[in-house]
Design goal:
Strand order of the largest sheet: 7-6-8-9-10-11-12
Number of strands: 12
Shape: globular
Structural class: alpha/beta
Strand content: 5-15%
Number of helices: 13
Oligomer: single chain
CATH architecture of the largest domain: 3-Layer(aba) Sandwich
Distance between the termini: 84 Å
Number of domains: 2
CATH superfamily of the largest domain: Response regulator
Order of helices and strands: HEHEHEHEEHEHEHEHEHHEHHHEE
Helix content: 40-55%
Length: 405
């Protein structure tokens, strides 16, 4: 073949290959709304790298295969811990950045703010922390007030009673705002319909300088257990009041704030060692000691990728949210918002799937209220060294809650 023919053949080959390169699919844009600044920023310092880690893994493994290997492009936006800014940021991400899906920690106030925008512009949105989902296009993997938080608390008390712990009367105490009120409204009928007696019902002032008067009221009621949702500030103040009164007789079972590793640090070792290992428990989605491989593997991967980030259940939940977005897009096989919404409704990540990070027998699927059908939680306690251990459910328990730690 002469030189001219060889050159011509090469040009034909290049012309033939070029369209293939041009047809590489555009990335799927996912808007991540987080509070990079403001009072909620500690959550986002975990959530952003966790979501990025999962999306980097998806892209390294071939992207969204049902979309021809389209990569995931994460667009991060800061709402400054201000729910009044969440809606406008969501509108920009949808209208100007052309995201196909929105996600983020999106606590209840932020979720309520974003819902009208998601419904108006018809873009599916995933909250990884809100306890309920409002609007037709918002889904959440957070902890429902009733069947997650209230039901798990009551199940744990009944479990202790069956193991010989005397639990006959219960007091409720809760931070007096929407989340605390919702959990309390779910708890009261459960208590009344059981064989337990309600000893006291004590709302906690969000602006109080301390909880000493509330703790005195609780101690006077002499309950076997005190249960309810407290925000981080109220949880800390309750434990300080317990310490000052040397009141450790009653079981104290709170929600996430009582299981937050930061609680030990803000109390300081002297107070924390005196009260947290003694009858103090909290609800959790993640714990470092659970013998469940997918949970531990993803957290080990996060820590290796971001060694300077102290990951806890906030980062853990964001990682699970990232996998849900991947599975939804694979199932949708489309960038059309209605197809993506339909995929959310049909999603099923079953037990045994390595992308199921939650230790839940029911796997992951969304019910008609767009929350997870299996929202069960773990109960964790504290050791005298400041470590957390799972005590319930029995399948994942590391220690017996009736034994000293």
């Amino acid at each position: 073949m002469n030189t001219i023919l060889r050159v011509a053949a090469c040009m034909v080959a290049i012309a033939t290959l070029s369209p293939l390169r041009a047809e590489e699919p555009a990335p799927v844009r996912v808007g991540l709304i987080e509070s990079l600044s403001g009072n909620l920023s500690p959550y986002s310092k975990e959530a952003v790298p966790a979501a990025r880690y999962i999306f980097d893994q998806v892209n390294a493994q071939g992207g969204i295969k049902s979309l021809g290997g389209a990569k995931l492009e994460l667009i991060v936006a800061d709402d400054e811990s201000d729910a009044s800014k969440t809606a406008s940021i969501a509108r920009k991400l949808i209208s100007e950045d052309h995201v196909s899906v929105l996600m983020g920690s999106l606590l209840t106030s932020q979720m309520l703010a974003i819902s009208p925008v998601a419904d108006e512009l018809k873009v599916p949105t995933l909250s990884v922390w809100a306890s309920s989902a409002k609007g037709d296009y918002v889904y959440t993997i957070g902890m429902p007030y009733d069947r997650a938080q209230a039901d798990t608390m009551m199940a744990f008390l009944h479990y202790l009673a069956k193991r010989g712990v005397p639990i006959h009367n219960v007091a409720t105490t809760y931070s007096n705002y929407e989340a605390g009120q919702q959990v309390n409204r779910a708890l009261l009928p459960l208590i009344k319909s059981s064989d337990l007696t309600l000893a006291a019902d004590v709302p906690l002032d969000l602006n109080s300088a301390n909880q000493m008067s509330d703790m005195l009221r609780l101690r006077a009621a002499n309950p076997d257990a005190v249960i309810g949702l407290q925000n981080p500030k109220n949880a800390e103040q309750l434990q300080r009041a317990r310490f000052n009164l040397r009141y450790t007789k009653s079981i104290f079972l709170g929600t996430v704030a009582m299981a937050d590793k930061h609680l030990w640090n803000v109390l300081g070792p002297d107070i924390a060692k005196a009260v947290l290992p003694v009858n103090t428990y909290g609800l959790a989605m993640y714990s470092s000691g659970v013998k469940y491989a997918p949970m531990q593997q993803v957290m080990a991967g996060l820590q290796k990728a971001y060694p300077d980030v102290a990951f806890s259940q906030f980062g853990f939940n964001s990682a699970q949210g990232g996998r849900i977005v991947q599975h939804v897009l694979e199932l949708a096989a489309s960038r059309d918002p209605e197809a993506i919404r339909d995929a959310f409704n049909k999603l099923k990540i079953s037990p045994g799937d390595p992308d199921l990070y939650y230790a839940r027998d029911g796997g992951i699927s969304f019910g008609p209220d767009r929350t997870l059908t299996d929202s069960s939680l773990m109960v964790v306690g504290w050791t005298s060294e400041g470590h957390q251990v799972v005590v319930f459910p029995e399948k994942y328990a590391e220690v017996d809650p009736t034994k000293p730690r």
